[in-house]
Design a protein that fits this description.
single chain; 372 residues; alpha/beta; FAD/NAD(P)-binding domain; 6-stranded mixed β-sheet; 13 helices; globular; binds flavin-adenine dinucleotide
Length: 372
Amino acid sequence: MQEFDAIIVGAGPAGLAAARKLAEAKMNVICLEKKQEIGVPKRCAEGLGGGWFERLGIKPDKRWAVREIEGAALYAPSGKKLELRFGKTAGYVLERRVFEKELAKQAVNAGAKIRVKHPVTSAVRENGKVKIEAGVRGDEEEYSAPLVLACDGVETQTARMLGLNTVNKLNDIDSGYQYEMAGIDYEGDDLINLFFGEDGTTEGTAKSYLDKFVESHPGLKQGSIVEVNAGAVPVGGFLDDMTADNLLVAGDAAHHVNPIHGGGIGLAMEGARIASDIAIGAHNAGDYSHKFLQKYNPIWYEKRGNQLKSILKRRHLFESLSDENLETLVNSLTGDDVLKIAEGELIESAKIVGKKLIKYPGLTKIMLKYLK
Ligand SMILES: Cc1cc2nc3c(=O)[nH]c(=O)nc-3n(C[C@H](O)[C@H](O)[C@H](O)COP(=O)(O)OP(=O)(O)OC[C@H]3O[C@@H](n4cnc5c(N)ncnc54)[C@H](O)[C@@H]3O)c2cc1C
């Protein structure tokens, strides 16, 4: 039995951020990862908004922040486009395999241990601690710690093994299917191109919609697929309580994801850092009770969770728009208008809607309902 101050399950952005923070606080910590290589497969479109670099104190490095993003182009079903340009670097496309290895290196340099090819298969409480079994068949090992951080992503089992229900409602899961392609010809490649429409909300698999999309875009059709990835994104059912005795949950496992675009790298790291602060407090106080660890919830909600709840409302707004509504919006609003509405400033948003959509009372009603 190997004893630690804390065991982290999962070496994604959340687990690695937590491992570094706990090790920097001189805690004896191990991070167990089921994959045989950190960062691979990536199951991610690898976009990260510029604000996260400032918030997390990370400097973009050319080895993993491989391409600058200047803004976004939003396309209505007819193909009409609305460009949002931020006038500065709005984010980066990451090479996540390199990024996560770098996070792993930083955690290990701070004193954390990482074990790949160590899937956690069992977690049980025993005498105030959690006993964990991990490893591939025939090569399992036992670990014990008074504290477990479940950072095991959308398919998390660890929290459930310790009695916390993390199951997503089906409506709160997005199916992601993605191709990395070579030989494509696409305009505006410094922008993220986002295509909206009702088509993808009817029956069909994510793959079938993607294939149809590629087939109908001449610039993509002639390209070759060099990588395929698929995954689920928990886009809305945040856990009210992300704790139990001896347990903290962060990242996708706690549904820390932006409900509109599904981005979760920055949020996973932020959530894990907040959870780590509580873990350090618990370690210093020798108190791993649910009551102590629960302090994590209000801090998360104040820093980020409440904002995500309001973004969730805007997702419901998008989902209730018809193709006709989307055309009206692209024809009536400017990129600046969309940015202001997306920022969620209520009076300003209501003014824009009242002025620019006055001829469309049905759409105005929908917009105002969700902006409230
Ligand atoms: C198709 C797709 C595209 C996406 N695009 C973007 C994007 O462009 N930008 C963005 O910010 N986000 C994106 N996301 C979301 C983003 O990938 C996640 O929000 C982010 O990875 C969450 O980090 P995490 O550390 O919580 O979880 P993960 O990155 O999923 O890491 C969890 C880790 O836990 C490990 N694990 C699971 N079970 C066990 C176990 N029993 N034992 C040991 N280890 C275990 C997993 O192998 C994994 O390595 C996308 C997601 C998908 C599916």
